[in-house]
Amino acid sequence: MSTKQISVLITGCSTGIGLETALHLSKQGFLVFATAREHEDVKKLKDLGFHSYFLDVTKPETIKYTLEEILKVTDGTLDIVFNNAGYGQPGAVEDLTTQTLKEQFETNVFGLHEVTIQVLNIMKTQGYGKIIQHSSVLGLVSLKLRGAYNASKYAIEGLTDTLRLELKDTNIDVTLLNTGPVLSEFRNNAKAKTSQNIDIENSRFKISYEKSLSSNKSDVPFTLPAIAVAKIVEKIIKSKKVKPRYYITKATYLLGFLKRVLSTSKLDNILERI
H/E element holding 253? Predict the structure, then answer.
């Protein structure tokens, strides 16, 4: 990359990891383009001093418009993309309607993919770039009552691993963040999705849902603040040799290790108790 100010597009910056990463990278001197899918959040980001745009990953035209606006600011280049936008849809597999599963994939998988392929057109033309895909520890292992989210993150893993192989002949790096429990609005949003899309009263998992809805983020071991993710993103941006994936939180390291060394049956015995 040249010595110009490095440009970074981040999706999903309304709160939590996206916002924290935008703030952190801006303080480090990067040119941050912070996006959100609600107009009031875009205004708040602009008030914070960001170049901010309305971008809903499920609406390709908003991605196209945002990229066109960014290129006007940067004289036609974009160095880094952090595909952070996404949400978690809890629910037992048997309690998920097909429509609910489709909605999870529309944002977490298809939206991420649309941003990626549009950005790739820019990066292939300029001859370099870095794409950071936000996966999860649940892209490595599965937890019960998280079927839709697990599946969406497994899909991201598959797409990204394939894309990394296909970009070997370019100067475009693509990497995954396997994030464990992090303080953000993610859990509150997931609770809302449970109430909205799951028929709790008629589910045989009713007690589990009610327990989950009444629990706090502090109940989860190894939880880190959102700045932990922001610092890894900064590390990736500054790295000359980008790794295929980055583990964030001790939970990811532990479960990733157990996945490698245990049989599926033995790992299941551990995961069903989490």
Answer: helix 250-261
Do the beta carbons of residue 180 and residue 251 sit within 8 Å? yes
For 120-148, what is each residue's pLDDT tens digit? Answer: 999 999 999 999 999 999 999 999 999 99
Q: How many CB atoms lie within 10 A of CB 64?
A: 13
**149 is a catalytic site residue:** yes
Global confidence as pTM: 0.95
Residues pairing with 53 in the sheet = 35
Write out the H or E segment, with its range, that includes residue 259. helix 250-261
**Coil, strand, or helix at residue 201?**
helix
CB contact at 8 A, 33 and 55:
no
Residues 186-227 have pLDDT tens digits of 888 999 999 999 999 999 999 999 998 887 655 677 899 999
Catalytic residue (one of 53, 87, 149, 246): 149
**In the block, residue with structure tokens 């010595």:** 3
Between CA 149 and CA 152 the distance in angstroms is: 5
How far is Cα 31 from Cα 25, in angstroms, rounded to an integer? Answer: 8
Residue identified by tokens 């993919």 is 113
Domains of the chain, CATH where assigned: 7-271 (3.40.50.720)
Distance in angstroms (rounded) separating the CA atoms of residues 105 and 109: 5
- Single-letter amino acid code for the residue at 66: T
Distance CA 222, CA 178 (A): 14
